[in-house]
Amino acid sequence: MVRPRHGFALIDAVAGGVMLGIGLAVILSLASRSITTQAVGQKQMVAAWLVDELLGSVVMEGPVLFPQRNATNGRFDAPFDEFEFDVRLEDLGLNAPFQVTAVVRWQFGSSEQSVQAQTYIARREGDLELPADRIPSEPIDRIERYYQDEEDAAN
Fold first, then answer.
1. Among 58, 69, 79, 136, which lies 20 to 30 A Cα-Cα from 88?
2. Which of 91, 97, 95, 57 is nearest to 76 (CA)?
């Protein structure tokens, strides 16, 4: 006669519960990391948009007028008020473009994160008064030259 083994099912249930607990802990840990990574990616994407907006504003207003009309550092307005910005414009000379660096920073947990972009932006026409010796002595009549070129092409 075979004796029934008492307690075997209990050990089986305890071992299964432990394995289930470990599995759930791993899944929750992965989910937590995934959510954190997604949040970091979202902040980086928003910061990249804000950097692009800053550089677009410098292009639109021109590197000469931008610092006169706008703050070059500070905090964005709501809903982006958790982001700080810094725009640095370096004049490289009369016939050279400005070196423009835009940085957007934000606090994530205990660390500071940032996105930075650097480019060269030329002066806008009219931003700079040219020296008198560079202005043509007589104006160019572009309309007359256009029609003259058409007549030359027809002959």
1. 79
2. 57
Q: What is the torsional sign of CA 75, 77, 80, 86?
A: negative
pTM, two decimals, is: 0.64
Alpha helices, DSSP H only, in the chain? 8-61, 66-69, 142-154
Which one has a higher pLDDT value, 69 or 130? 69
Burial of 67 (0-12, 13-18, 19+ CB in 10 A): middle
Integer Rg of the chain from CA: 33
Using an 8 Å Cβ cutoff, are 115 and 51 in contact? yes
Q: Could you tell me the residue ranges of all domains in the chain?
A: 34-128
